Amino acid sequence: MGGPVSLVESFVHQKESPHTRRAYRRDLRAFFGQTEVTKDLVCGVDHDDIDAFLARGESSGLAESTLRRRRSALRQFFDWLTAEGVVTSNPARHGRIRTPMARPASTSGQEKSSGPLSRDQAEKLVASIDGSTAVGRRNRALVMLVLHCALRRGELVRVNVDDFRLVGRYRILEIRDSESGSTSISGSDQTKSGHQDKIETLSGRAKVPEHVYRHVQAVRMDVDVRVGALFRSYSNRNRGARITGDSVYRVVRDAGQAIDIDALTPDRLRQTGLQLALESGATGDQVRAHGRYAASAPYSARHEERLRDSAADYVEVGENLSISGA
Q: Model-level pTM?
């Protein structure tokens, strides 16, 4: 690699969507200023070059969605170059790279109480959750998974600690659904009355960005188990039991109220993640697939290719948060 063949063309050729191929080709050519991008050229790029490129776009009045798509194109391009051994690190993921400015959130009563959150509100939401306690780390990871993995409330409560795995280079979450009328053989999830939970069958899969998985790992360390529920109760009455759908509702509602967002629900949070992905350059097909509006097929090489360019990568909320704090 890296001879006369343009690395940009090799990269965009892997993208499934023609729209994404055109947009990323245009963004990368705008950054490099030429069509033929070789190994020598990419090896000379550092994070200051990328930050300056985004700054020029910002000062020229480009839309926030365009700036975020450009940043995403550069991140994914250098991720690919790193995986291929062309470069040793990704300068587009440096902590000093600017985050494109969000549009001011509307203060109208209608938008305050319904519809997806703005990016600024979503960032404020996850940053406001206290990560210094086990309860706070659980709540933050819960919110991050809903935003980035488009989980429904019922799917979230059924997440187990061993539902995360690698497919190639990508982390995924196996999403479970309940099979009516069946019982689980797992004693760890028995109720106090002795009844066993329903069998949970696989209903879908979602890519989990690495910065989200770090928060999941913190929760796994807190619960300190190898199987069973990831999200557990810390109440005196039900300590250690799998949280309920009502608990998820209260966690999300209370997190919203803490930053003066009324009527925040898990579904509204899920729709926020999908909307943010769309605004940042994900295609409609990517968002529909990520939202699992159709049945998921078993993973294959083709599915692994799709993971390279998942809508989850466009949400980009809470990327700079530490595990224990803001």
A: 0.69
Same domain, 127 and 273: yes
Q: What is the pLDDT of residues 67-90, one digit of tens each?
A: 888 988 998 899 899 989 999 999
Q: What is the 3-state secondary structure (H, E, C) of the chain?
A: CCCCCCHHHHHHCCCCCHHHHHHHHHHHHHHHCCCCCCHHHHHCCCHHHHHHHHHHHHHCCCCHHHHHHHHHHHHHHHHHHHHCCCCCCCHHHCCCCCCCCCCCCCCCHHHHHCCCCCHHHHHHHHHHCCCCCHHHHHHHHHHHHHHHHCCCHHHHHCCECCCEEEECCEEEEEEEEECCCCCCCCHHHCCCCCCCCCCEEEEEEEECCHHHHHHHHHHHHHHCCCCCECCECCCCCCCCCECCHHHHHHHHHHHHHHCCCCCCCHHHHHHHHHHHHHHCCCCHHHHHHHCCCCCCCCCCHHHHHHHCCCCHHHHCCCCCCCCCCC
If one counts the domains in the chain, the total is 2
